[in-house]
Structures are given as structure tokens and as C-alpha cells.
Design a protein that fits this description.
By secondary structure, this protein is α+β, with helices and mostly antiparallel strands. The protein is built from 10 helices and 4 strands. Helix content is 74%, strand content 9%. A 4-stranded mixed beta sheet has the order 1-2-4-3, with helices on both faces.
Length: 258
């Protein structure tokens, strides 16, 4: 039982470590962002199942050794089982802490946005809200109803069609539950050693993936040229290089140029 548990723990550690490495390696993710994100989530679930199986195996071994009264031979599995249970409790506490931090940031962001409403309308089931902000910004918040925020600066610099593309992009975030994906990514990132290079890239890569997926959904709802133009315009005002890179990706993937 102890050997089985150790093998499961090693497999789980390998999955937790190497899935972010694979997600952060190469450029294949830009071509298939949805596949890359699903692969990471599948690996994460697999790692969690392996970890749970290892803990259960250790605890079962400890209980079995205690019930059979194997004397000194029972000491190792007994200690290993309860150490595993304690470690699981510590990991759960860390996970809940990282998740709570992410949730607090979202609530703070929502409070700021809702204090700046200037206008809104319903596009069922969404509420489309304009907020007073000179910078071109957009974001979405899941809820009842889900809300999509566009700044007055965004509406000023974009055409109506380009605003529609940005709204379609934000709708994709809500419908695909990207807020939950980013929460899981925050927890997974917090569980990696901070000095490890991949831990610094991992969370940013997950964010890039969900943005590319939403871009592709916006292309389906509007057009590649409209989404590209919107990204390039916002990039010109904000200086955000990532928007320019996403625009270049749309040129290559959907427009066959660039």
C-alpha cells in the first residue's frame, strides 16, 4: 500500500509540475488555444485525482496496519498515513487562501466599476454598462445578470461595429466561465515554487489563452477584420503590446496576412 501511494504521489507531482511547463513551451497554443486550455484543465483534474488516491491509499494502509496490530511494522504506514492527511489539510488551506484572494480582487474591481455607471441597457441575459473612464477599457463580471462594462473612452475611440466585437469578446468570457478558469490558474500558480521560471509565466499564459479564445468567439460573432481593428486601435491608445500580438495572430489565423 505504501509503495502504491508513493507511486501515485510521484505521478501527481509530475502532472502538477509538467502541465504548466508544457503550457508555457513553444507557440502551438496560439493556434489551438481552446485545446491547450482543455489539456491543462484535464491534466490538473488528473493530478488532483492522483493526489486524492495517494492520500486515501496512505490512510487506508495506516488504518489496516493499526487494526492488524503488526507492531513495529505498522509504524511506518501509520506515520505516513497521518502525515499525508495533515499535508492534505495544509494544501487545502493554501488553495482556499489563494482562491479567497482572487475573489476579493474581483469584488473590489466590481465595486469600483459600479460606482462609475453612466448608462446601461439589457442584451438578454447580459447587462451592457458604460462606465465613466477616459481610458479604453472593457471587462465582464459573471452574476445575475452578467454584466459587461465598456468605458466612455472605449466608446469614443471605437466604431459601433468594433464596440460590438469587444462586447462579443466579453460575452465569451462569461459564457465560457473564464473567471473560474483564472481562479483555478491563480491557485495552481500559487502552488508552484515562486523562483521557478515556469511559475512566473504560467498564470500569464493562461490569461493569454482565454483572451485568444474570446477573440476567436468574437470573430465568429462579428468578423476577423473588425476584431483586429478594435485590438489595434485599443493598443494604439493603451500601449499594451499583448493587444498588438493578438491582432497579428488574427491576421495570420483568420485573414491570412501578416
Amino acid at each position: 500500500m505504501l509503495v502504491t501511494a508513493i507511486a501515485l504521489l510521484v505521478a501527481a507531482a509530475a502532472v502538477f509540475f509538467f502541465s504548466p511547463v508544457v503550457l508555457s513551451y513553444g507557440n502551438w497554443q496560439s493556434r489551438r488555444p481552446s485545446l491547450a486550455l482543455k489539456a491543462w484543465l484535464a491534466a490538473l483534474i488528473g493530478g488532483l485525482l492522483l493526489s486524492a488516491a495517494a492520500v486515501i491509499a496512505l490512510i487506508a494502509g495506516a488504518l489496516h496496519a493499526e487494526s492488524t496490530g503488526a507492531g513495529s511494522q505498522a509504524l511506518v504506514p501509520w506515520i505516513a498515513g497521518w502525515v499525508a492527511l495533515s499535508a492534505a489539510g495544509i494544501v487545502l488551506a493554501l488553495v482556499l487562501s489563494a482562491s479567497d484572494d482572487f475573489g476579493r480582487r474581483l469584488k473590489a474591481e466590481a465595486q469600483v466599476l459600479r460606482s462609475r455607471w453612466t448608462d446601461w441597457y439589457i442584451d438578454a441575459p447580459f447587462r451592457i454598462v458604460t462606465v465613466d473612464d477616459d481610458d479604453p477599457r472593457a471587462c465582464s463580471l459573471a452574476g445575475r445578470p452578467p454584466e459587461i462594462y465598456l468605458s466612455t473612452g472605449m466608446r469614443r475611440v471605437l466604431s459601433d461595429d468594433e464596440c460590438a466585437a469587444i462586447i462579443a469578446h466579453e460575452k465569451s468570457h462569461v459564457l465560457r466561465r473564464h473567471n473560474l478558469v483564472l481562479r483555478v490558474a491563480a491557485v495552481n500558480s500559487a502552488s508552484l515554487p515562486r523562483r521557478l521560471p515556469v511559475s512566473q509565466r504560467f498564470r500569464a499564459n493562461v490569461l493569454t489563452l482565454v483572451e485568444m479564445i474570446a477573440d476567436d468567439d468574437a470573430v465568429q460573432a462579428t468578423s476577423a477584420a473588425t476584431v483586429r481593428d478594435a485590438l489595434e486601435t485599443i493598443s494604439g491608445f493603451s500601449g499594451d503590446a499583448s493587444l498588438r500580438l493578438r491582432s497579428l495572430r488574427l491576421r495570420r489565423m483568420h485573414l491570412g496576412t501578416g
